[in-house]
Design brief:
Helix 1 crosses helix 7. The protein is an alpha/beta fold. The protein is built from seven helices and seven strands.
């Protein structure tokens, strides 16, 4: 299938591009930054998703929205929600689409982290349901993955601080964070294997939201 992945240059986005490519799909990565991913199945497009002068990419069958920022300002909503909606409406609302997967966040379901960021991801999960309703006429599925802690450069200040890292691990039932490759596996499954689940938000947080202390 022909797959478009935004936020493709690093972290979760790069892992998603690599896995799709390894499975033989034709992958177009879109990002503000260049990519060092080398594959005969991979093409990289440098483009700011806030720029609505969209490049002509032909017929997209799978869209994965992974582009996002965490600035603690209204820019989070501009990129993570508004620009993502505009891009999706341009590339995905057409008869060749087979699936859309939005990379949201556990904070969309728990309200944790920073106000603008949580709001942007909460809006993205609501948009996921809206889009699922509208793309059903094409037989397409639309879902979101909502990762908790993931081992990426964005979280380097935590990963390199033994005290902070121990504290965040203690917040999860499984006492671990996910790798980008794990999240990529969920995305590829939802995009290519799943045919029955749509309009859902899949929480992948190692049990962090579930953890509680029962007092009797």
């Amino acid at each position: 299938m022909k797959v478009l992945v935004t936020g493709a240059s690093g972290g979760i986005g790069k892992a998603i591009c690599r896995l799709f490519s390894e499975q033989g799909h034709r992958v177009i990565g879109m990002d503000l930054l260049p990519s060092d991913l080398c594959s005969e199945n991979y093409e990289h497009v440098i483009h700011d998703i806030r720029d609505t002068d969209w490049p002509d990419l032909g017929e997209i069958e799978v869209l994965v929205n992974c582009a996002g920022v965490q600035t603690q300002t209204a820019e989070d909503i501009a990129v993570n929600l508004s620009a993502t909606i505009e891009l999706t409406e341009h590339y995905a609302v057409q008869e060749n689409i087979r699936s859309v997967v939005n990379v949201s966040s556990a904070s969309a379901l728990t309200g944790s982290e920073f106000p603008h960021y949580a709001a942007s991801k909460g809006g993205l999960t609501a948009y996921t349901k809206n889009l699922a309703l509208r793309l059903a006429r094409y037989g397409a599925t639309v879902n979101a993955v909502c990762p908790g802690g993931v081992i990426t450069d964005l979280n380097r200040h935590i990963l390199e601080d033994d005290r902070l890292y121990a504290a965040v691990l203690d917040e999860s039932l499984l006492h671990r964070w996910s790798s980008p490759e794990e999240i990529a596996e969920w995305v590829v499954f939802l995009a290519c294997v799943n045919r029955s689940m749509t309009g859902e938000n899949l929480l992948i947080d190692n049990g962090e939201a579930l953890k509680s202390n029962f007092i009797w």
